[in-house]
Amino acid sequence: MPVRLERPADHPHVALVTLDRPEKANALDPAMLGDLAAAWREIAEDDGVRCAVLTGAGERVFCAGMDVAATLGPSQALARGERVDEADFAGLRDVGTATLAAFDLGTPLVCAINGHARAGGFDLMLAAEIRFAVPHASFALEEVALGLYPTGNATVLLPRQIPWVHAHQLLLTAQPIDAPEAARIGLVNRLVEPEKLLEHSLVTAATIARNAPLAVKATRAGVRDLLTVPLEEALRRQEQLGRPLRKTQDAAEARQAYLDRRPPTFRGE
Q1: Domain of 230?
Q2: From CA 27, how far away is CA 61, in angstroms rounded?
Q3: Is residue 269 in some structural domain?
Q4: pTM for the complete prediction?
Q5: What is the pLDDT of residues 239-266, one digit of tens each?
Q6: Could you tell me whether strands 138-140 and 109-113 are parallel, antiparallel, or unpaired per DSSP bridges?
């Protein structure tokens, strides 16, 4: 399968998604788009998954973006109003969900960037809340060099995640930056050696998953909701978001566990 969805036995409540097409630089063809979209939907619908991890197979590339050879023909045919293979149509229809540009996972995502992240792979990475990368990774948005507009997450999310000047350098020059520079400008959290990358990412995801799931989901959603809201309104709305959580069973369990000097057991209730 070009996309693997696993539930690591050592990390309950964590889902691991692997882009597994290393011979093609983990590039996204229609079949892979469909499988990836299906994986995200499964995770979003499963209350037992409290955090997800995304990585790529191999040691060289996280994701090179769209597989142009496989997607260009069907895409052009669709634009001309022509019929295309049903499987190709299904995959292309799912591109917004697969890249998380038009689909809210509703669950925190940790990205384990095992190599180069380009174009659509860069877009997919931007959907993650936390990112770790190997030291040899590089990052590039190459659309303007191809006469294209970056229609994924880049123009929407990148200037909100890193400083303005660095976002525009990536968007307008189409030139790659290396992993140390990505860490310096805050595009990734930190650099991790390849042999430790996946376990470090899974442990981080497990740390998130151990927290009260309703509080994690509400906090993740709140950050998105309040990001562009004026300060006074944001302060008022955060109180509205937080008030219901104080009445949950998880909040009561956290208080009791503190008194009992034991780890809490959260049920998402």
Answers
A1: 212-260
A2: 9
A3: no
A4: 0.92
A5: 888 899 889 999 888 899 889 899 998 9
A6: unpaired
